[in-house]
Amino acid sequence: MLKNLVFLCSLFCFSLSSAQSYTIQGRILDNDSGEGISGVTIFNLNTLQGSISGLDGAFSIARSTMSDSIAFSYLGYEEQIIQFLANEDEPYVILKKADYLLDELVITALGLERDSKSLGYAVEKLKSDALKEVQAVNFVQNLAGKVAGVSVSQGATGVGSTSKVTIRGEASFSNNTPLFVVDGMPINNNTILNETNEAAAGFQEIDFGNGAMDLNSEDIASVSVLKGPSAAALYGTRASNGVIIINTKDGSNQQGLGISYTSTASVETAFQLPQFQNQYGQGNSGQFEFVDGLGAGINDNITYSWGPELDQGILIPQFDSPVIAADGKTVRGGDVAVHGGADIQATPFVSYADNLSDFYRTGSTLNNHLSLSNAFYNGSIRFSAGDMRNQSIIPGSNYNRQNASTHFNIKIGERLHLSSSINYIRSASDNRPSNGYGSENVNYSLVAWGPRSLNTEILRDYWQPGLEGLQ
């Protein structure tokens, strides 16, 4: 019994000694100055534990064996992996500065390449991968949240509308748009608007977009943002709000013939709609009767929802109530030019709680892009074509765009380099939605003035019978 007890005690002591951990303590010094380096990441490759050096470069890390391998890494220095022996006491770790880090070439004015550290102004560069992480149809929107000091505001009428860009805030009360330069060529990025009178019942503003939005993200190699007037002195007063320099792909990174095809599809819906009351319908002071929508009836020239109560079994002549025309055909009460003022049959005055959500549809965007590129011994060439088709959430509104581009490079001699790029863009829309305060803005008309008794489904057939294309 005594022998067994002695054996168990010996085994327990051996287990304790084998599980004992050792600690390495030392200092990390700069190879040039000999001063301690704080913040160095220390990682034990055996135990997978880590630590960070203190203010004077002092460090301490646990190890499990007599010869653990410890890795030391710090930004701007070469990484070192050292195997420490058990008899080393207070070792010194010397880190050498790396001469290949933090060097970056950026495109500045007139297409010149400069080392970012040699510039006297702020500049940031984005590569193509950063622009395609969550790719938007509007190229300008891809810059949102990716460059410090650059603010991007999306247009209010969906795909095809202007995306406003400002660098370091609003600098004036008029134009704050930076200059866009594509392959060394400045482009017009001003918003295109129609002539309006801004009257509530007149022609409303239509946003036809701006120039930069039609660039194809698949064709862009890099984007450099020059901030402030000093950064863009070579471009003159047009660049007082900064410059966004865009370099397109030229095929120089392709070894041999390369073919690339990308296709993306997306859908969109109305995100959040207002909540409405559904107790009272069209009219005022509890009264309503439709005749011609111009005031001949009772409050039929207004769309306030202060009329009679809904869903109470009340029968009232309305816009979509049936009318027997002179030829015997049944038309709507609103088809005044067809029935000529005939009697409108009274129909139940009911609510349409989902009339706004029923009006909007599910929008869709399909984007296809094909590119061919090839690099040869003294140059490169790239051709690409893209097709984008969008259907808005607003019925009848769409936006289509076709892109084609060619980029050619050739080195003729030691001091002569020829580069040429051609971009063709064609965009069109059958019916872009209006902005502003007025009846032409369908969003405003339905949200602010659409009565709760309005059946939006009947409005899909918006031509009066026999007057298609006219009224």
Number of strands: 25
Work out the radius of gyration. 35 Å
Give the terminus-to-terminus CA distance.
112 Å
Structural class: mainly beta
Regions with pLDDT < 50 over 5+ consecutive residues? 1-19
Strand proportion, as a percent range, falls in 25-35%
Number of helices: 5
Order of secondary-structure elements: HEEEEEEEEEEHEEEEEEEEEEHEHEEEEH
What is the residue-mean pLDDT, rounded to a whole number?
81
Helical residue percent? under 10%
Shape: elongated
In the sheet with the most strands, the strands line up as 10-15-16-13-14
User: For the report, how would you describe the main beta sheet?
Assistant: 5 strands, mixed
Keywords summarizing the entry:
471 residues, mainly beta, five-stranded mixed β-sheet, 5 helices, 8% helix
Structure description:
The protein is mainly beta. The protein is 8% helix and 33% strand. The chain contains five helices and 25 strands. The chain has helices at residues 2-18, 128-131, 336-339, 355-359, 442-449; strands at residues 22-30, 41-44, 49-52, 58-63, 69-73, 80-83, 92-95, 105-107, 113-115, 123-127, 150-153, 164-167, 179-182, 185-187, 220-226, 243-248, 258-268, 315-317, 322-324, 330-332, 346-348, 363-376, 379-391, 398-413, 416-428. Strands 10-15-16-13-14 form a five-stranded mixed sheet. The chain has a five-stranded antiparallel sheet with strand order 17-22-23-24-25, with no helix packed on it. A hairpin with a 6-residue loop joins β5 and β6 (80-83). The chain is elongated, with a radius of gyration of 35 Å.
